UniProtKB/TrEMBL annotation:
Its EC number is 2.4.1.80. It comes from Henosepilachna vigintioctopunctata. It is a multi-pass membrane protein. This is ceramide glucosyltransferase. It catalyses: N-(9Z-octadecenoyl)-sphing-4-enine + UDP-alpha-D-xylose = beta-D-xylosyl-(1<->1')-N-(9Z-octadecenoyl)-sphing-4-enine + UDP + H(+); UDP-alpha-D-xylose + an N-acylsphing-4-enine = a beta-D-xylosyl-(1<->1')-N-acylsphing-4-enine + UDP + H(+). One of its GO terms (cellular component) is Golgi membrane. It is found in: Golgi apparatus membrane. The keyword Nucleotidyltransferase does not apply. Belongs to the glycosyltransferase 2 family. Gene3D superfamilies: Spore Coat Polysaccharide Biosynthesis Protein SpsA, Chain A (3.90.550.10). Pathway: Lipid metabolism; sphingolipid metabolism; Sphingolipid metabolism. The chain crosses the membrane at residues 251-276, 288-307.
Length: 309
């Protein structure tokens, strides 16, 4: 029920006689893939009245420079600026890349959006609607666009089931489960602590940014639309490496959670429950295990179809 309440839910939009808050969108880029131009173009065609696009590219010879310049020429009515060259403020290359753009951003609301994200026309409006007076950070639950191939299907199933369960439960319990691929936040709150550069000393800057907002008493929430990852580079090895990197960060930051994490997986918790049922009630453990897996798969399918809408 919570998944249907939270995802793809239309919130009341701001009244027409009230000004929409302006949004500065930071796009850190490095290199390019076959989908980069199409992904970036969706940011130029959003149906939101007041925003600026700030593209951040570390190297002047990066091929992404040409893509950005062509889009800026194609959409001259959209306020957009290209920043070349990073400023070293810490060990985090993403923060180094975005620092100048953040400092020169015009609006109070800042959207940090990774290069592989594809936007719908109303995605930004959806995120802004969740930015209430008591909310300091709105982020999107990770998901993927429809793409061909086994690796793309594997990613979609993972983000639409296992990752979605964690994200939805964390949002319900007000637990920090923030991934910074698409995040709308209040610039003034970060400025109170020195700005974005303060988090350059962390590799997992997204976790600590969210922690900072929570420690300051601000609410954080996910918007109703998931983040549509649409990278043109999609293979099993890179996906596995990504999951491994996230697991290492969780071990370093929240080691207690990683101990209990296997109990959230289908096979492990099913085996434990089957053993317990056989000991306590003398039920057939194999039958219990198979029924558990079937019901788990049905629930995963229901969750995936809800996220996919």
């Amino acid at each position: 029920m919570f998944r249907k309440y939270k995802l793809h839910r239309k919130l009341p939009q701001p009244a027409l006689d009230e000004p929409y808050p302006g949004v500065s969108i930071l796009k850190p880029l490095m290199g390019m893939d076959s989908n980069l131009a199409a992904n970036l173009e969706t940011f130029f065609t959003m149906s939101y009245p007041l925003y600026e696009l700030l593209f951040c590219i570390e190297e002047e010879v990066d091929p992404a420079v040409t893509v950005v310049e062509e889009l800026i020429k194609k959409y001259p009515k959209v306020s957009a600026k290209l920043f070349k060259g990073a400023t070293t403020v810490g060990v985090n290359p993403k923060i180094n890349n975005m620092h100048r753009a953040f400092e020169e951003s015009v609006y109070e609301l800042v959207l940090v959006s990774d290069s592989g994200i594809k936007m719908k026309e109303d995605t930004l409006l959806d995120m802004v609607c969740y930015m209430t007076d008591k909310t300091g950070l709105v982020h999107q639950m990770p998901f993927t666009c429809d793409r061909n191939g086994f690796a793309a299907t594997l990613e979609k199933i993972y983000f639409g089931t296992a990752q979605s369960r964690i994200y939805l439960v964390a949002d319900l319990l007000r637990v920090n489960c923030h991934t910074g691929m698409s995040t709308l936040l209040r610039k003034s709150v970060l400025k109170e602590n020195g700005g974005l550069k303060t988090f350059g000393c962390y590799l997992a800057e997204d976790f600590f940014i969210c922690k900072y907002f929570l420690d300051k008493g601000w609410r954080t929430t996910i918007s109703s639309q998931p983040a549509l990852q649409n990278s043109g580079l999609c293979d099993v090895n890179s996906f596995q490496a990504r999951l491994t990197r996230w697991a290492k960060l969780r071990v370093a930051m929240v080691p207690l959670v990683i101990i209990f994490e296997p109990l959230s997986e289908c096979m492990v918790i099913g085996a434990c429950a089957a053993w317990a049922s056989s000991v306590l009630f003398q039920w057939d453990s194999l039958a219990f295990y198979l029924i558990h897996i079937l019901l788990w798969f049905i629930c995963d399918w229901m969750l995936l179809t809800t996220v996919q809408v």
